């Protein structure tokens, strides 16, 4: 198995850091070679808030993925999200010198590169420049101009920006974990690759990725991304509501949400009661499943109203034939599609990354919570294939300074020693 065939997706989320190692099979499916998962205490609402804790989580996830896949991981495709993400529409134009030559990939790349030079607001940088449709010599509605003849080529672009500091903090975490990065990819774009069908993107669809800290929205129509947004609410705020509403511990609230959580209170029986063990000899506490559902429903309705507002702002509300696709860890709550249909008036389904995964894989990886990680692997494979088609040199260490094997081993040993020493110091402080 060649290293160039293996792609690693690194999802740095609010609740978990997940590394997925995969490659494309001869049937076009994704063979998942290994998965590593770690807690993510250094991330809040999709943004890195503690470098050291995030680096530790990345190392733990990568080491677990290496162990399970029996492959050395040097380069990753990293996901980015957070409420700092913004989207803009812009038009670009390129005048070619010779109208006898066909429009080439280099011409398209030059037009896209010009968009990367746009002046942004202070503290912002461009993450993605996504062409929507091209215009060649005043002929609109062209989706692939390569091979055509023409002098003036223009395009409508969907430009996604983020805070410079947030992007740099993610890069810093990856490099401090002794890794290189092949690309930084907006997480809803990755999730869309994992759970959406091309026919859905063509007919019009809304992807809603409900994570721990944020809810990401991506709207597609005629196969093109038309609108993106990040809502600063996710599954963690529902857990906080349960803690306050039921006066229980956070760990208990998270467990109740995952095991018994429902987004429609009327679907639960009045007499269904859960007994929670008391703390330090206190009597057990009884919680009504219906009351739990009322708390979850109130917050999830608010999140979905924000989603519906973004749908209306996009201008595509009446063009989304296939409705809403829900994914992410928060999509596992019971009765969520029914609630979404009630709030938006649109059809809804849960999006699983099963369509793109080889059948031999375990059931765990087919959960909606792994949609972003699988999508990052798919996007990485697509980028490799595109570079091969264009005849570019494909190198999995494109963004990484290659280290000799002995030096790599020494760096890993040093990082483990640092973590061990820090944990030992923390334990001694605790004992004092």
TrEMBL record:
Q: Which residues form the SHS2 domain?
A: 7-195
Q: Where in the cell is it found?
A: Cell membrane
Q: Which UniProt keywords apply?
A: Cell cycle, Cell division, Cell membrane, Membrane
UniProt-listed GO biological process terms: FtsZ-dependent cytokinesis
Function field: Cell division protein that is involved in the assembly of the Z ring. May serve as a membrane anchor for the Z ring.
Task: Name the principal localization, coarsely classed.
Answer: membrane
Q: Does the keyword Cell division apply?
A: yes
Is Cell membrane among this UniProt entry's keywords?
A: yes
Membrane topology summary: Peripheral membrane protein
What do the Gene Ontology cellular component annotations say?
A: cell division site; cytoplasmic side of plasma membrane
Q: Which source organism does the UniProt entry give?
A: Solitalea koreensis
- Name used for this protein in its record: Cell division protein FtsA
Quaternary structure and interacting proteins, as annotated: Self-interacts. Interacts with FtsZ.
Which gene is the coding source of this polypeptide chain? Answer: ftsA
Question: Top-down, what is the taxonomic lineage of the species of origin?
Answer: Bacteria, Pseudomonadati, Bacteroidota, Sphingobacteriia, Sphingobacteriales
One Pfam match, given by its short name, reads: SHS2_FTSA
Which protein family is named in the record?
Belongs to the FtsA/MreB family.
């Amino acid at each position: 198995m060649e290293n160039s065939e293996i792609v690693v997706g690194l999802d740095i989320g609010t609740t978990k850091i997940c590394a997925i190692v995969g490659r494309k099979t001869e049937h076009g499916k994704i063979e998942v070679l290994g998965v590593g998962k770690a807690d993510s205490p250094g991330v809040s609402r999709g943004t890195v808030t503690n470098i050291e804790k995030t680096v530790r989580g990345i190392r733990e996830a990568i080491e677990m993925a290496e162990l399970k896949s029996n492959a050395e991981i040097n380069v990753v495709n990293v996901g980015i999200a957070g409420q700092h993400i913004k989207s803009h529409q812009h038009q670009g134009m390129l005048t070619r010198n010779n109208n006898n030559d066909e429009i080439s990939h280099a011409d398209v790349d030059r037009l896209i590169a010009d968009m990367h030079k746009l002046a942004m607001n202070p503290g912002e940088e461009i993450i993605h420049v996504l062409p929507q449709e091209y215009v060649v010599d005043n002929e609109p509605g062209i989706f692939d101009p390569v091979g055509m003849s023409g002098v003036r080529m223009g395009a409508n672009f969907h430009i996604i920006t983020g805070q410079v500091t947030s992007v740099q903090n993610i890069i810093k975490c990856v490099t401090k974990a002794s890794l290189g990065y092949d690309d930084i990819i907006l997480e809803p774009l990755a999730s869309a690759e994992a759970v959406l069908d091309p026919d859905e993107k063509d007919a019009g669809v809304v992807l809603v990725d409900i994570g721990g800290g944020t809810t990401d929205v991506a709207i597609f129509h005629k196969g093109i991304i038309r609108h993106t947004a990040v809502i600063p609410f996710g599954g963690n705020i529902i857990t906080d509501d349960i803690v306050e509403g039921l006066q229980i511990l956070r760990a208990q609230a998270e467990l109740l949400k995952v095991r018994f959580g429902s987004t429609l209170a009327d679907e639960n029986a009045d007499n269904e009661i859960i007994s929670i063990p008391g703390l330090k000899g206190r009597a057990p506490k009884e919680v009504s499943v219906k009351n739990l559902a009322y708390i979850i429903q109130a917050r999830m309705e608010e999140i979905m109203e924000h989603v519906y507002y973004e749908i209306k702002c996009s201008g595509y509300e009446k063009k989304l034939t296939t409705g809403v696709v829900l994914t992410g860890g928060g999509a596992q709550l019971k009765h969520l599609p029914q609630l979404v249909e009630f709030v938006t008036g649109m059809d809804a389904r849960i999006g699983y990354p099963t369509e793109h995964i080889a059948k031999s894989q375990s059931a765990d990886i087919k959960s909606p919570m792994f949609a972003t990680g699988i999508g990052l692997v798919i996007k990485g494979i697509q980028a490799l294939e595109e570079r091969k088609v264009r005849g570019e040199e494909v190198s999995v260490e494109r963004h990484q300074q290659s280290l000799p094997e002995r030096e790599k081993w020494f760096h890993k040993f040093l990082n483990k020693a640092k973590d061990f020493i820090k944990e030992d110091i923390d334990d001694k402080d605790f004992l004092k």
